[in-house]
Input
Amino acid sequence: MTFRIAPSILSADFARLGEEVRNVLAAGADVVHFDVMDNHYVPNLTVGPMVCEAVRPHAVKDGRPAPIDVHLMVRPVDRIVPDFAKAGADIISFHPEASDHVDRTLGLIRECGCKAGLVLNPATPLHHLDHVMDRLDLILIMSVNPGYGGQKFIAQALAKLRAVRERIDAHRAGGGQEIWLEVDGGVKVDNIRAIGAAGADTFVAGSAIFGPGDYAAKIAAMRAELAAV
Output
């Protein structure tokens, strides 16, 4: 399995955001995770398409554009999708509770030229995946309740990851497309091995990477744990 580290810029220094993005990718990250909150669907307000557009030129790894993974915690969601696609998003994911027509929103994201993802909160049931697996490029399991960084990992997310991994593997065995299984919330060096063993392949980490200390050393420590999965 290919493991991807996706630092969340929610925990970065916003006074020097472009530099932070460059540094974390140079330190070994694979994906830039972009958290969008609207103070309606979740109790916080973060950033919009203009910031994504400003970050896009800085999201480069080994001379090529690195994926920008936009997680929309907004309601309604359809209105803002084209704006983020135009701003340079590569992946756009959203919560089923934020869309009146989940299949239509997934189709809109793909029509805008982006990969499409569905996000499941700790209490969101898996049946939302039942009829849309063929339209998904990513499934994001929230291991905290969305809205704030720095929260503690909810252990029940491990069982949810295992159940979704079974669904993805069955879909692939039936000839379906590749689907990333991402996890977001409380991911740290001391639990990333267990999270990977549960089936995740893409790991969002904010406060565990950004802030004081060497980014490369933190990411290397995470990869060393994942190598033992």
